[in-house]
Specification:
By secondary structure, this protein is an alpha/beta fold. It folds into two domains: about 140 residues, Rossmann fold; about 60 residues, DNA polymerase, domain 1. It is built from ten helices and eight strands. A six-stranded parallel beta sheet has the order 5-4-1-6-7-8, sandwiched between helices. Strands 2-3 form a two-stranded antiparallel sheet. Helix 6 links the parallel strand 4 and strand 5. One of its GO terms (biological process) is DNA repair. GO terms for molecular function: phosphoglycolate phosphatase activity. It comes from Senegalimassilia anaerobia. Keywords: Hydrolase.
Length: about 220
């Protein structure tokens, strides 16, 4: 494509390095609510979807699902600002893309307020023109609705936008929305899992992502 106008980003694993924060909250909620601890792989296999969706893999009991989510969120709030961090070069990359005239936004499966707080803490929020959380839409990723909503908020058709993510669910959502998609490999999923979703391109570093993105202008 040519004529790129905007770039939307996933949050966790793409803009912010929240792996240890997520695992700390999972490790707290598992024993506290389920009475057992799951492996890191089990906890992270559906990162990129809302917590309420992920927890269905841990228990079939709706009451325990609700309690797990509440325990997770309470612990996450307690340690969030201390543990949230960004990947090296993230803020600088956002600044460079914004200076090229691109509108930027975030589309995440986190709650809007929690995602925005993390972006403020790491210094990325000032470069972003919109934020779409799971509580802003009816159908979360991999449905196209979140990406479509982000494009609408920025004022562009999905065909004029690029969606960047580190999870298969991100790429599925962006592709279904009609946007170009970029897979980044510094997040929580391996490259074969990402390339299987046929992204427009794959980036291993922020420099690669910037170069490939600016080539679409």
């Amino acid at each position: 494509m040519a004529g790129l106008k905007a770039v939307l980003f996933d949050n966790d694993g793409t803009l912010v390095d929240s792996r240890e924060l997520l695992l700390a909250s999972f490790h707290y909620a598992g024993p506290a609510v389920l009475g057992r601890q799951l492996s890191d792989e089990e906890y992270l296999q559906k990162v990129g979807q809302p917590l309420a969706v992920q927890v269905k893999d841990y228990t079939d009991d709706p009451v325990l699902q609700e309690r797990f989510c509440e325990a997770y969120r309470v612990h996450n709030k307690t340690v969030h600002d201390k543990m949230i961090k960004t990947f090296p070069g993230t803020v600088e990359a956002l600044a460079e893309l914004a200076s090229a005239g691109l509108k930027l936004g975030v589309v995440t499966s986190k709650r809007h307020a929690v995602a925005w707080r993390g972006l403020e803490v790491v210094g990325a929020a000032s470069y972003l023109d919109c934020c779409v959380g799971w509580d802003d839409i009816e159908r979360p990723k991999p449905d196209p609705q979140p990406v479509v909503r982000g494009c609408e908020l920025l004022g562009f058709d999905p065909s004029e936008c690029l969606y960047v993510g580190d999870a298969p669910f991100d790429l599925q959502s962006g592709n279904a929305a009609g946007a170009s998609t970029a897979a980044v490999t510094w997040g929580m999923f391996n490259e074969p899992a990402l390339t299987a979703e046929r992204p427009s391109f794959v980036s291993h570093t922020w420099d690669e992502l910037i170069a490939s993105t600016l080539a679409l202008l």
